[in-house]
Structure formats: C-alpha cells, structure tokens
C-alpha cells in the first residue's frame, strides 16, 4: 500500500515539475518574441551612401533641415526646423504646415544653419548654390547628406530615402501606395469626363506667360501620371530645360489649340487682364468654350513633390469632372 502511495506521489511530483518546466519554456519564448519585437521597433542609426560617400545618421533624429525638399519631410509626418525661402517668398502650398517654422535663405547661410542646431542636414546634388562647403556643414552636423542628382530630381526617391534616414520606411511605402491609388482613381474619372480632350497649363507672372512643357513640374502629373492628352503645340516644345523658363508671346499662345487651359496666377496678376482683353486669346478654342480656369495658387503647380502632386490632382479633378 505504501509502495502504491509512493508511486502516485512520485508521479504527481513529476507531473507538477513538467508543468513548471513547460511554463518556463513558454515564458522564455514570449520573452524572446518580445525582445525581437522590441528590437524591430527600436530605431537604430543607419549608414547610407550619398553623393559624397557614406553618411551615418543617428537614431531618433528630430531636428532636420532639407531646404526646398520640405514636401518629402512633411509627407512622412516630419516638420523641419527651418523652411526654404528666397527673401519673403516661400513654398506657399506648404504654409498650412510650416507657418510657424522659421525661414532660412535658399543659399543656407552658415550662421543661420548653426542657429537651428540641426541633427541632420540634407543638401541637393549641386553644392555651388550654398554659401558653405560640405566641410562647413559637416562641422555643424556630422550627419550632412548630399543627395545624388537622380534623387534631387525625383520626389518619389526622396520620400523613400528620407524614410530610410528617419526610420519611417513603412510610412514611406504607405504614402506612396496611397498616392498611386489616388492617381489611378483620378485617371479613371478624368477619362470618363474629358476622354481625349487636351489640357494645357500656363503660369502667369506679371504680364508674362509661361507654358508648361510635358516634363515641367505639375505637367508631369497631367500628362505622364493622369494620362491627359497634350495639345500639339505642347508636344512641339519637347522637353523643358528645367533650369530656366521661357515666356511666350501672345502670338505664340494663339497656336495653343487646347480644349482646356489652367491659368496659374496670383490674384490681381496683370497678365490675366491682358488675356481677357486680347482678341487673339479670345479666339482660341478653350477661351471660346469657356474652358479657361484661373487657379489663384500657382505654388504647387510650379513645384514637385508628393503633396504638390496630390494638390494638383485635386485641382484638376475638382475642375474637369462634371
């Protein structure tokens, strides 16, 4: 009898020990999984190739300067510590998010950069436009990154790059995917609304008129992404020299046989009155059919970026879809 009781007692003890060991094993697994998840979510420094060689960007960077490329930062939910400006001129379409951010002149004066104590400085590929040398900016922040020409000219690549720099790669993928969906939806609606009709965009500055070639700023959104047809006159211009704008005379504009025309002009621009009083202008198809649309915020039309492109799409859709 005692032997039987002893056997039952021993089996019971072994069973309890097995449960304890099993529980410890599960706890260890959970702990390992938690550690792995923590490691995955904890930002770490990253080393990336730049035009000037490898640059190491610290983890949890918060103070960033990326003059003229604030669009990409804001798309990722990052507010810079200074915003690009030429005198009093800024990128107006970003002002709702950057209104309280101090301006910094386009050539990045060293003293002003130092005042902002940036942890990360992002420069364009052409360093000649800046007051300081790369070495000067590196003295302010070791994490001074010079974009290649390809990235400087491609806002999508900027969003991807800035995402890697700032530990926001998932956010970068998300906003780019959302943008592609927006383009696809708008393209379908516009195709149903205007079909094969042609569209042109003209920037009116003072009393001068600048027609957008197929690759100039927002025209890429119109023609390459939304698939809107170009007027023959726009096709004849070929690719733009993005470093300069060439004004067109009224006589030349009379050759623009577009079905729809967007006039990009601040309120009160003299050129709008000039067009309204011109018999030459009033003879073109868009004017005759009342298909000329005045857009009083040219800033996003004359820029490139995710936010700029989204605003362009919204303006086109709101105007052309009946």
Q: Can you walk me through this structure?
A:
The N and C termini lie far apart (95 Å). Helices cover 47% and strands 14% of the residues. It has a 4-stranded mixed sheet with strand order 9-8-10-11. Strands 3-6-7 form a 3-stranded parallel sheet, covered by helices on one side. The protein has a two-stranded antiparallel ribbon with strand order 1-2. It has 322 residues and is an alpha/beta fold.
Chart the SSEs and their pairings:
Blueprint (H helix, E strand, L loop, with lengths): L1 H40 L4 E5 L2 E5 L6 E2 L4 H6 L7 E3 L9 H4 L4 E3 L4 H6 L4 E4 L10 H7 L3 E3 L2 H4 L2 H11 L3 H26 L4 E7 L2 E4 L7 H7 L6 H6 L12 H4 L6 E5 L5 H7 L2 H4 L2 H4 L3 E4 L10 H15 L2
Parallel strand pairs: 3-6, 4-5, 6-7, 8-10, 10-11
Antiparallel strand pairs: 1-2, 8-9
Helix pairs in contact: 7-8, 8-15
Bulk shape = globular
Q: How large, in whole angstroms, is the Cα Rg? A: 29 Å
Going across the biggest sheet, name each strand in turn: 9-8-10-11
- Strand percent estimate: 5-15%
User: What is the percent of helical residues?
Assistant: 40-55%
Counting H and I runs of at least 4 residues, what is the number of helices?
15
């Amino acid at each position: 009898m005692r032997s039987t009781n002893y056997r039952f007692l021993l089996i019971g003890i072994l069973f309890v020990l097995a449960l304890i060991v099993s529980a410890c094993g599960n706890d260890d697994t959970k702990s390992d999984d938690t550690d792995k998840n923590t490691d995955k979510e904890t930002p770490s420094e990253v080393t990336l190739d730049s035009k000037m060689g490898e640059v190491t960007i610290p983890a949890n960077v918060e103070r960033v300067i990326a003059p003229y490329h604030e669009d990409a930062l804001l798309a990722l939910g990052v507010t810079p510590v200074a915003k690009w400006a030429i005198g009093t001129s800024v990128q107006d379409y970003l002002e709702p998010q950057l209104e309280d951010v101090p301006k910094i002149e386009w050539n990045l004066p060293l003293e002003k950069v130092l005042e902002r104590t940036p942890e990360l400085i992002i420069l364009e590929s052409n360093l000649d436009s800046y007051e300081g040398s790369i070495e000067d900016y590196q003295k302010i922040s070791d994490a001074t990154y010079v974009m290649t020409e390809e990235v400087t000219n491609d806002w999508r690549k900027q969003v991807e790059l800035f995402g890697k720099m700032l530990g926001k790669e998932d956010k970068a993928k998300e906003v780019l995917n959302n943008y592609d969906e927006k383009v696809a939806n708008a393209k379908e609606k516009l195709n149903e609304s205007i079909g094969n009709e042609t569209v042109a965009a003209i920037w009116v500055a003072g009393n001068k008129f600048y027609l957008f070639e197929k690759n100039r700023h927002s025209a890429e959104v119109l023609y390459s992404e939304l698939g809107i047809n170009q007027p023959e006159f726009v096709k004849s211009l070929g690719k733009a020299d993005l470093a300069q704008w060439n004004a067109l005379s009224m006589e030349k504009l009379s050759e623009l046989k577009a079905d729809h025309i967007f006039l990009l002009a601040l309120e009160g621009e003299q050129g709008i009155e000039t067009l309204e009083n011109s018999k030459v202008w009033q003879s073109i198809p868009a004017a005759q059919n009342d298909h000329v649309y005045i857009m009083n915020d040219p800033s996003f039309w004359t820029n490139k970026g995710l936010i700029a492109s989204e605003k362009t799409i919204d303006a086109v859709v709101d105007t052309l879809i009946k």
